[in-house]
Amino acid sequence: MNSLTHPRLSVVIPVYNEEEGLQALFDRLYPALDHVASQYALPYELVFINDGSKDRSAAMLAMQYEKRPDVTRVVLFANNFGQHMAIMAGFEYARGEYIITLDADLQNPPEEIGKIVRQLEEGHDYVGTIRENRQDSWFRKTASRAMNRLRDKLTR
Fold first, then answer.
1. Does the structure show a pLDDT above 50 at 75?
2. Which helix (H) or strand (E) element contains residue 16?
3. Residue 45 has what pLDDT?
4. Where would a tag sit more exposed on the chain, N or C end, judged by fewer CB atoms within 10 A?
5. Handedness of CA 14, 17, 23, 25 (dihedral sign)
6. Which of 111, 11, 18, 21 is nearest to 68 (CA)?
7. Residue-range domains of the chain with CATH
8. In angstroms, rounded to a whole number, what is the distance separating the alpha carbons of residues 14 and 105?
9. Half-sphere exposure (Cβ direction) of 90: Cα atoms closer than 13 Å
10. Is the pLDDT of residue 137 over 80?
């Protein structure tokens, strides 16, 4: 079965001016997902949303599509609409039963996707993650903690 025709897992990745880090993302992401796919018999797709990048991100995504058309989808925005809109567009294009979002800058390690999938396969409707050793401002950390608490109350 072609993974891209019937994916059960969609990984949505917004991309904006990530030229410097995309190759590192590809080098870690595809092996991690190939491992998850074989471990769980879980066909997957990657949905990259290029959010109007001004650097070579779109060209690099096109080259990656040429290397792995079996699992790679690329959506190109002509302008920058912001990360939130890029993720929402990714949800529209995603076809998997499970959808995971991932930042292109490797803030969240692709190697952790297997742990998320394990929880989903065990029947959880929602699985969230928390980054350790955040390098964000005090305000950003505080706002994130507040949103995490709200999410926890709503989803338990």
1. yes
2. none
3. 98
4. C
5. negative
6. 11
7. 9-125 (3.90.550.10), 130-156 (no CATH)
8. 10
9. 30
10. no
Could you tell me the two tokens for 32?
Answer: 């991690």
Residue predicted with more confidence, 43 or 108: 43
Q: Which two tokens stand for residue 118?
A: 């394990």
Longest dimension (CA), the chain: 48
Looking from the CA of 120 toward its CB, the CA atoms found within 13 Å total 20
Mean per-residue pLDDT over the chain, rounded = 90
Q: Kindly write down the DSSP assignment for every residue of 45-89, as one continuous string.
A: EEEEEEES-SSSHHHHHHHHHHH-TTTEEEEEESS---HHHHHHH
- Report yes or no: 49 and 85 within 8 Å, Cβ to Cβ: no
Structure-token pair, residue 51: 């959010």
The answer to whether 127 and 120 are in contact (CB under 8 A) is yes
**Residue 96 tokens, joined:** 């998997």
pLDDT band with cut points at 50, 70 and 90 for residue 156:
low
Each residue's pLDDT tens digit, 24-48: 999 999 999 999 999 999 999 999 9
- The answer to whether the CB of 32 falls within 8 A of the CB of 111 is yes
> At residue 7, what is the residue type?
P
